[in-house]
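Long-time lurker. I teach an intro course on protein structure, and each term I like to show students one example going from raw sequence to a predicted 3D structure in token notation. This year I'd like something fresh instead of my usual example. Would anyone be willing to generate the tokens for the chain below so I can use it in lecture? Attribution to the forum is fine with me.
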Amino acid sequence: MSARRGRASRRAPVRDHLLRDLDHWQQAVDLRTQWLNHALCTDPADRRNAEDAVTGLYALLGRPRPAFVWVDSPAAAVPSVASQHTVSPHGAQPWESGLASLVSTLRHRIDARIGAVDPDDWPRPPALPDPVAALRSGTGLSPVLDQGVLGALRRGVRQSVANVIRSAIPERFGLAWYGQHEVDWVARHDVHQRIHGRPFDATDGAQWELWATLVRSCGWWWPREDVCVLAERPSAVHTEPAPDDVYGEIRLHAADGPAVVYPDGWGVYSWHGTRVPAWVIEDPTVEAISAESNVEVRRCAIERIGWAAFIERAGLTLVGRSVDPGNSANELRLYDLPYRHRGSTTRLLLAVNGSVERDGTRRQYGLHVPPWFDDPIDAAGWTYGLSGAQYAGLQRRT
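-- Reply from a regular --
Happy to contribute to a lecture. Here you go:
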């Protein structure tokens, strides 16, 4: 065999393996999309299947079928859940902690079977920013699947959607499960068993299916001793792709109303993934912005108006302007502000992002800087921990 033929024969298995991994990755993307659709579903809950799945979980803990109370939103669940919230004698945790142990041990058993890595051990930000490039460079399929399925759904659904909703609930009692928003780990195990051909054993598979049914059937739910409170799914959910969403991450966002609305009218407002009060979206004014103490809420409200409009309406005084050395196609502008930041007078440095957004534009943003800066370049350097002269020497910033 010639040297050329020998090299070709060695490359063929490598190429075939890569093509197989790329095909599996595309299958995983399709499955992730299916599960994401369940997570964002706005159809009325499938109450029969949801109740049967909960009953199955109660049975695994030796409990009879509970009574079911349905509510139209997580906020509406508070009175019903509060009335059922008890602590048993001797300081033991509420009964629902047994269910937490049940699902935790299930996930650990399945993770061990599929050889999955604990997501808490992942580096942050994700170490694999481009799944296809990672596979082409020799990264194994499993870590790509974990980043692209569990990681993407955890960041997009659990951390963005569920956490934003959770933060808006006025009170919480005991443990709750997120129903359709538990999609991350359920989808991960589904993808691994389908693509790697590692089916669950019968017992684990039956329990996994109960949790999967709840993802496909209902919103949040609160299991208690003899009663289970379940919430309907939202009637509307508005999202957008997250920045650099190579793994399909999404975040809550709506520019003209609530990002999430439930059948009883309760909802949550979100501006590019940040929960905000209704006024930020419905009626942002200079007066409300000036009175707002939360810097993130204030930033979102200004972005909702637009920086140029805010500067004009607020009558900000321009202190100085300069070509941005780190982004020479744009200017740095320094303004006096009409409100205090963290109790102190402050100035606003208006800059343009060095990176291009998904739509081809560059985002304008404002940074609070100490009031003693008169030179925009000195102020820009301060935000990077540099002197003005050091910042002026930058070739490019992001």
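Some talking points for your students: Confidence is low (pLDDT under 50) at residues 121-125. The two ends are 53 Å apart (CA to CA).
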